[in-house]
Amino acid sequence: MLGSGSTYKYACKITGVVPASKVIKGLSGSTLRLEHRGLGPRGVKALAISLLSNTHVTFLNLEDNWLTAEGGRHIADLLSENYFIKHVNLSNNHLESGGAEALGRMLSNNSALEKVQLSGNHFKDEDAMNLSQGLMNNNQLKELDLSHNEFCEKGGKYFGHMLATNEVLEIFDLSWNHLRMTGAVALCAGLRGNTTLTHLHLAWNGYATEGAVAMAEALKLNSTLVYLDLRKNRIGNHGAEVIANGLEVNETLKTLKLSHNLFDVDGAKALLTSLKKNQMSKLQELDVSTVTVNDAFLRLLETLQDRSGLVVEHGRVTDSPLLRPRPYVEPMRAIEIYLEKNKLRLWEFFHSMDKDGSKRIPIAVFRNMIQESEVRAQTPTVKESLYSTARKKRTAKGGRCSAHHSDYISCTKPPRPPCSARFLNP
């Protein structure tokens, strides 16, 4: 009997492809990684033939090999015979409807696979029917990735019916599809009575308010789900509020991701309020990281600090005292305040910076003085302070300090000590 390597070489000969050394070496290990190799339908046919009797490989990664429906059928035939492969990745292979049909039949018969990745294969609603049928007959598969496909309302109905009857699936990824309206509602209806699913990925769909209402009802009844991702689902304030109603009675969910939706701080506060009401909640992570919050939200969050392990990710705080902008003070008035507090006259203020007695102060020196003094805390920018001073504010009896669009401020001493009151309030 030929070994897997010899079988592969023979299969390459009859299919007209060049044997790949990476395949030959990988056939003796438990993991065979052939992603991005451009195998195509013929290349994967030769591989499938060599794997029919292989007992070593348990993980087969064929992502991004342009297998098309034909190649998908070859892999489906292989997996109907080989019961040693536990994990297969067929993502981004243009399998389309022909591949989905073959894989659906395979899932009905295979009792070894535990994880299947089928992301990005242009599957549509009719393909959901074939895949769901296979899943309803499967008693082993624990993890399925169908993200980045094109399932819509009918697809949601098929998968909802599957979830209501499937008793083994634990992780289901339907993110980046088009599940909305009746499809979203049907999927949630199936989730209500499901007793095995723990992780559900639904990010980047279109659940909106209708889907949020259905999900809230599912959260009230489901007792196994621990991870729910609903990011980017057009959920507004009302949707967040009804999900909060579901959280009031849910006792199993640990992670809820709701960022990149449409609700604001009111929706976020409703979620926190529900956690406050539900003393039996197991939630450990709440993601509302794109929601701008306020002090009221933070005060409500403080009341949940006794919840061990709870982490709430939120956006920036708008009206926190630490983030509020200081009230605007006209730059020249800010300098007046500084002079009055330190009992200085304007001339003395500038004279302290005129180290060489030239009566010309480098702008860089003026800038440093502003930044190092209390004036910095009063004025919005050093530049504004500089050019406010540049208005040639005349001191008493002809003294002046003027700034130009150059590198210096010119200072002229008045004939007699200036009256700061008259200068500051001309």
Account of the protein in words:
This is Leucine rich repeat containing 74A. Residues 341-376 form the EF-hand domain. Pfam families: LRR_6 (PF13516). One of its GO terms (molecular function) is calcium ion binding. The chain is of the alpha/beta class. The protein folds into 2 domains: 4-314, Leucine-rich repeat, LRR (right-handed beta-alpha superhelix); 331-424. The protein is built from 17 helices and 15 strands. An 11-stranded parallel sheet has the order 1-2-3-4-5-6-7-8-9-10-11, with no helix packed on it. The chain has a 4-stranded antiparallel sheet with strand order 12-15-14-13. Helix 1 (4-15) packs antiparallel against helix 3 and helix 3 packs parallel to helix 4 (68-81). The longest helix is centred in the first third of the chain and has 14 residues, at 68-81. The N and C termini lie far apart (107 Å).
